[in-house]
Structure formats: structure tokens, C-alpha cells
Amino acid sequence: MAVEAGEDIFAGALPGQVCRAVPVSTYLARRWPPALSARTLRFAAFVLLVLSGVSPANAPQLIRSARELGYTGLISTETGQDASVLQEGAGELADGFISVGGASTPELASDAMREFVERYTKMFGEYNDESNTKVYALEYIIETLKANPAAIDNVDEFKKTMDTFEAANPFMKGDAKLKYVGMTSFGQKRQISVPLVVNEYKGGKFETLFVGQVD
Predict the structure, then answer these.
(1) CB of 59 within 8 A of CB of 86?
(2) Which single residue of 40, 101, 116, 172 could bond 176 by disulfide (Cβ 3.0 to 4.6 Å)?
(3) How far apart are CA 202 and CA 52, in angstroms?
(4) Residue 21 and residue 45 in contact, taking contact as beta carbons nearer than 8 Å
(5) Looking at residue 14, which CATH number applies to its domain?
(6) Are residues 15 and 71 in the same domain?
(7) Do the domain assignments include residue 19?
(8) From CA 20, how far away is CA 52, in angstroms rounded?
């Protein structure tokens, strides 16, 4: 079996569940097929396997399955993960796993963010990296309403405010701003802007590769 970059070499048992083998510079998978074989995975060493939308609970199982079936390429996801769950479920097999984690690193975190982490840990016993993104939701709502009080019971006013809204980001050091984004991808500002912290899992913890932004 000869496989060229770009060929469909992953096929699921259900209609429409297909993954593509592509160069590392391109995302591979839209869905993980329900059945994988060692024969299929042998030819995928040169590709990037994206576990799109995978939950922290399922990621270790899928990573372990891929590695035990012989897949040696890169594995990534665009969703936040839990280092302790990866360690427990996949161990060293998860080393090198790349994910878009929470919206903060120790270098970026403001005093307000550190205080939030401290209170969270005291209440729940441990801190989860994904919580770094969730902390933003209420702050955006409150600051948008402060910018335009009429938006409190008027959706049109809220959407209008999103187009020009900007406020200080209390969770990051420096002059970072809260703002809405989405023009490039959706043609309108309907997404909240949070730092995209790209992590690599190694030895039971996440290491930051780089921090990005979207528009």
C-alpha cells in the first residue's frame, strides 16, 4: 500500500467519518473515526493528527490507542486539557501532545488572576488550566453593559456595542485589552478575545510553546 500526502488513508465505519493524511503543516482530522487499524496507522507517521474538540476525559484514551497502534506522528487539539488526566490515562504516551490551553501563563498573569487561581484552588482543591479561559466570560458581559447600559435588556444594543467595545484586561499584565473579534473568520465581531496559549505536554505538565491572538 503506497500512501501519498493528501490521500484519504483514515476511514471510519460510519458514513462521513473520514480523516485525511496531509503534510504536518496542515490540520489532519475533522473527526476521529470509530475504528482504527494498525495497518492504517503505519502509514501516518508523517502527519499531524488533530483530535478536534476532544474532551479532557477522552483525550488520554485516544492518544493511548493511537500510540499503541503504532502512530508516531504529532497529535494535537484546539481544546483545553487537564495535565493530571493525561498523566493518569496515557502517561508517557501523551508526551508531545499539543493543545490550546488556558488563556494565561505565570508570566502573563496579573495579580487579579493570581488571586482568582488562589481562591479557586482553595475552594475546589486543585486548579485546572481550562479555567483560565472561563474566567473571562462574566467580565466581558459586565464590561460591555457598563459601556452601554441600554444593552442590559436589548440584544441589538449589545451587538452594536460589541463592534467598538474595548476595556482593560484585568487578568493580564501590561496594557492588554478586552475586545470582541471574529471579523476574519465570521465577518462580524461575535467572539471574545482571549490569549491563545499553545502548550506541549511533557513529563506530567504543560510547557508553553507560544501565545497568540485572533482577529
Answers:
(1) yes
(2) 172
(3) 20
(4) no
(5) 3.40.50.2300
(6) yes
(7) yes
(8) 13
The three cell numbers locating residue 159 = 451587538
Is 38:70 a contact under the CB 8 Å cutoff?
A: yes
Number of compact structural domains in the chain: 2
Pairwise CA distance, residues 84 & 87, whole Å? 5
Distances (CA, A) of 209 to 35, 100, 129, 135, 197: 32, 10, 15, 22, 8
For residue 24, CA distances in Å to 74, 136, 197, 211, 213 come to 8, 32, 20, 20, 22
Q: Is residue 75 part of a domain?
A: yes
93 & 131 share domain: no
156 and 53 in one domain? no
The residue segments making up the domain with residue 18 are 10-102+196-212
Q: Mind giving me the DSSP string for 81-116?
A: --HHHHHHHTGGGGTT-EEE--S--TTTB-HHHHHH
Apex 114 CA angle, 112 and 116, nearest 5 = 70
**In terms of Cα–Cα distance, which of 92, 114, 102 is closest to 171?**
114
The model's pLDDT over 50-73, given as tens digits with 9 standing for 90+, comes to: 998 899 999 999 999 999 988 888
* pLDDT, tens digit (0-9, with 9 covering 90-100), for 71-115: 888 999 988 888 999 999 999 999 999 998 777 788 889 999 999
